[in-house]
Amino acid sequence: MERSVFPSEWLVPWSWRGLPVGLLSAPALEPSTASAGTTPSPSTVVLIHGFGACKEHWRHNVAQLRANRPVLALDLLGFGASAKPPSQLEGEEEAPGSCRYGIDLWAEQVVAAIEAHVEGSVQLVGNSIGGVVALAAAARLAEAGRPARQVVLVDCAQRALDDKRLSEQPPLRRWGRPLLKALVRQRWLTATLFGSLAKPGVIRKVLQQAYPSGANIDDQLVQILLEPAQQPGASEAFRGFINLFNDRIAPELLSGLTTPVTLIWGQRDPWEPIEEARRWAAQFPCVRQLHELPGLGHCPHDEAPEQVNPLLLDALHNGDLTP
């Protein structure tokens, strides 16, 4: 049985493409009584985790968010309680049961989960790479005639190593790109590297970088991240992800998006500089707000939920009021 920090009745059996998916569906604590002509009924909030995380990374947010709205959270394929099929990279011969890990795969999974489990409107909340997935899913929903009411990006991944951003890299890194690409395709290397990372001590050290205040780095969090990483096939999602040199990047998606976007960002994020978020807020009309959080890092929703939950609730409420 799936282990989770959430009540078992919220964990819903679901499969996608014939593969099991870890899914949480938490009903609103106080269902809306809105009627025609009044304030719109609260939309379902869909939570999308970042790389190496899972739905349990929203452990300090779900209870507050479901005060008056349903909450849906899922484990992206390759993570958490979801299946972890073998990775198939560009140019490789297709193998039975393999998949092409990437933003489009995960966005398609998110949209499928919404279609299967949500009747009304949705708002998407994504952290890190989950933010890029949220933007791609919002674009798909809009194309399908079911636009999301809003996207909230929490320290969205900027994917600085994508080939489309290669000109921003120092000359030595640009020169070494072909060698890097050749190396990270090798399973022996990616499996060895992943194995060296999937250890409690290493995970705790990474968390100390991601959570600069040190708050909420506890044994529960370490286990939340460690247990899925020790499951068979976990290194395949890692291999697929670190080979995404030509995939979706947030600026491309933001440039074509009409869905309103709110940014929530830790000013001390060691991996996704706040300066880029400021550029997005100034450049893209769909970005309506940027909330900067002093002293916080890459996962402020878990590092300081007492600060982020009110911002999320306010953003979701305003999203429901947006025509």
Radius of gyration: 19 Å
Number of helices: 13
Overall CATH architecture: 3-Layer(aba) Sandwich
Roughly how many Å apart are the termini? 42 Å
The top-level CATH class is Alpha Beta
Secondary structural class: alpha/beta
Output the strand order for the largest sheet. 3-5-4-6-7-8-9
Into how many domains do the coordinates divide?
1
Q: In percent terms, what proportion of residues is strand?
A: 5-15%
Which regions are unreliable across 5 or more consecutive residues at pLDDT < 50? none
Q: What is the average of the pLDDT values?
A: 92
Q: Could you tell me the number of beta strands?
A: 9
| H/E element order | EEEEHEHEHEHHHHHHHEHEHH
Name the shape in a single word.
globular
Question: Any chance you could write out the topology, listing elements then pairs?
Answer:
Elements (H helix, E strand, L loop, with lengths): L14 E2 L2 E2 L2 E4 L17 E5 L13 H4 L5 E4 L28 H15 L4 E7 H15 L6 E7 L14 H5 L1 H8 L2 H11 L2 H11 L8 H11 L4 H9 L7 H6 L5 E6 L7 H10 L3 E7 L6 H4 L1 H17 L2
Parallel strand pairs: 4-5, 4-6, 6-7, 7-8, 8-9
Antiparallel strand pairs: 1-2, 3-5
Helix pairs in contact: 2-3, 6-9
